[in-house]
Amino acid sequence: MKLYLKFLSVHLRSAMAYRAGFFLTCLGQLLITTNVFLSVIFLMERFGSVGGYTLPQLSLCYAVILAGTSLAECFARGLDTFHRILSDARFDRILLRPRPVLFQVLCQEMRPAMLARVLQAAVMLAWAVADGAVAWTLAKALVLALMIVCGAAVFFGLFLVNACICFFTLEHLETMNIFLDGPREYGKYPFGIYGKPVLLVLTFLVPLALVQHWPLQYLLGRGPLWYGLLPLAALLFLIPCALLWRLGVRHYRSTGS
Amino acid sequence: MKKYLSFFKMRLMAGLQYRAAALAGMSTQLVWGAMEVLLYRAFWLEAPERFPMGMQALAAYIWLQQAFLAFFALWNWEYEILESVKTGSVAYELLRPVNVYSMWLARTAANRLARGLLRLLPVLAVGCLIPAPYGLRLRVPLPVFGLFLLSSVLMLVVVCAYSLLVYALTFYLTDPGGIMFLSIAAADLLGGAIVPLPFLPSWLRGIAQLTPFASMQNVPLRIFSGDIPLGQIPAAMGLQVLWIAVLGAAGYLLTKRGLGRAVILGG
Fold it and tell me: Using the beta-carbon criterion (under 8 Å), do B200 and A193 form an inter-chain contact?
């Protein structure tokens, strides 16, 4: 852990070395996600509500997903760009060092600019809270924290799957963007909006609805407490991801470059 | 003219080789299109009377948008051109008996065309398989279809002219990153990417109409979906031509001046 913090500070300092560039990147990242939510605002202005959700409730919903993806994108950057780690043979060096492999991959690259998006999520969350989107209790506040943390964990799992595929293809597979970039785009609405088939897939296959749609029902007083605990069940997704990672590492053969 | 055309053809052939990448990209586009249609369906089921365009028209717009993505997506920058300006290797181009701007135009247009053509048909095919009103409507009057094709070509040229203007500006800026991401964000917002232009609040739609971004995907997609009445199509396409002239002239002059100003140090 101490070593990880050390790496974190190194990456932070290297990002801050080009301060103007860093803030420009932050701004660029923020513009993308702001645009995503602007589309929600424009449609809600026209329609008032959709599927029984109001704008502040949707703000809460998107804030959860945004915080989760951004945390994962910041700290799992090494998995996101794993094809580069493979292609320039950094992975060979990693295998030689007496530290856990995954730990070292995570330490390779971090993306502090993504934390700007976490800030955006915090602002959207604060707005939703101030607007009284939810009648808050202590339990609900805990469930909200659980949604964000477990959301980040599920996205971490997805990044891990992405990296595992790189073991076999040696290249980044654009198809994975459906799950890496897609949720950041389509998580602006509760996944139930997209209809039952989508909700089922995102509940049982890639459990993103377990950290967003279902616990949101509990927060809005439309579901029982156990809906609020479903984010914990989403953590089960990490098991197959971890197994796949081990399979990938065992399958690994150096490209020799 | 002939040398630019043959360079264009060469780049196009090279671009058409990346079939695996196109296949992977296509799957993303299909999911994106489906999610977008499902989303608007939720709004449609709730309050169809508040739609500024019909569901059928909107669905056609969305599927075409996904099919045409590579034609107009500004984030498909030509990094080779940007690098050549940044490192100064653009100077080699001066040794060749060609106009730099025209070469860039040929390269940009060919790459966009190749990327787009590779992804186009399967997305359109899937769009057509989906039942009405959520699929791609096919019965378009022939003259409208002709105008749609023409306006698609104009869209491609507008997008290329805009990109070239950005490349030309890199002669004068130390880091083009800022203008690049601002362009992308503005095009997303004002060009009909995050929501089609009719869905924007009227004040913002007014602003959007004044920018070149409204002359990109907005025009051909809405002509095809029947959202722009036949009488207004000539005006919309005229505006596209106007933007081509303005952006083209600005980019051409800035490139010429930038190259004239450049001092090449030996080495």
Answer: no
pLDDT band at B267 (very low <50, low <70, confident <90, very high): very low
**Which of A50, A178, A182 is closest, CB to CB, to B43?**
A50
pLDDT of residue B158: 97
Choice between A90 and A65, residue whose per-residue pLDDT is larger: A65
C-alpha torsion sign, points A49, A54, A59, A61: negative
Q: Hey, of A18, A36, A39, which one would you mutate to test binding to chain B, going by the most B CBs within 10 A of its CB?
A: A39
Res B60: pLDDT: 94
Query: From A188, which residue of chain B is nearest by alpha-carbon distance?
Result: B39
Q: How far apart are CA A107 and CA A6, in angstroms?
A: 9
Q: What is the mean pLDDT of residues A92-116?
A: 89
For tokens 């959709």, what's the residue? A50
Question: Token pair for residue B70?
Answer: 């590579």
How many residues belong to chain A? 257
**Predicted confidence (pLDDT) per residue in A39-60, tens digit:** 999 999 999 999 999 999 999 9
Residues of B in contact with A213 (CB under 8 A): none
CB A140 within 8 A of CB A219: yes
Question: What letter does residue A50 receive in the DSSP assignment?
Answer: B
Name all contacts of B157-161 with Cβ < 8 Å and 24+ positions apart.
B157/B109, B157/B244, B158/B212, B158/B215, B158/B216, B158/B240, B158/B243, B158/B244, B158/B247, B159/B71, B159/B72, B159/B74, B159/B112, B159/B216, B160/B105, B160/B108, B160/B109, B160/B112, B161/B105, B161/B243, B161/B244, B161/B247, B161/B248, B161/B251
3-state secondary structure of A69: helix
pLDDT category, B264, cuts 50, 70, 90?
low
User: Does the beta-carbon distance from B178 to A39 stay under 8 Å?
Assistant: no
- Give the tens place of pLDDT for each residue, B64-111: 999 999 999 998 899 889 888 888 888 888 888 888 999 999 999 999
Contact B106, B7 (CB under 8 A): yes
The minimum CA-CA distance between A177 and chain B, rounded to whole Å, is 7
Which residues from chain A sit within 8 angstroms of residue B182, using beta carbons?
A: 31
Q: Rounded mean pLDDT of chain A?
A: 91
B201 to chain A, any CB pair closer than 8 A? The answer is yes
Query: Which of the 8 DSSP states describes residue A12?
Result: H
Domains in chain A: boundaries: 2-251
A49 in Cβ contact with A193 (< 8 Å): no
Nearest-Cα distance to chain A for B68, in Å, is 17
The answer to whether the Cβ–Cβ distance between A186 and B35 falls below 8 Å is yes
CB contact under 8 Å between B32 and A51, yes or no, is: no
Residue A185 exposed, middle or buried by CB count within 10 Å (0-12, 13-18, 19+): middle
The complex scores an ipTM of 0.90
DSSP H stretches of helix in chain B? 2-15, 19-46, 55-67, 69-72, 79-87, 91-95, 100-129, 142-169, 177-190, 202-209, 218-224, 233-261
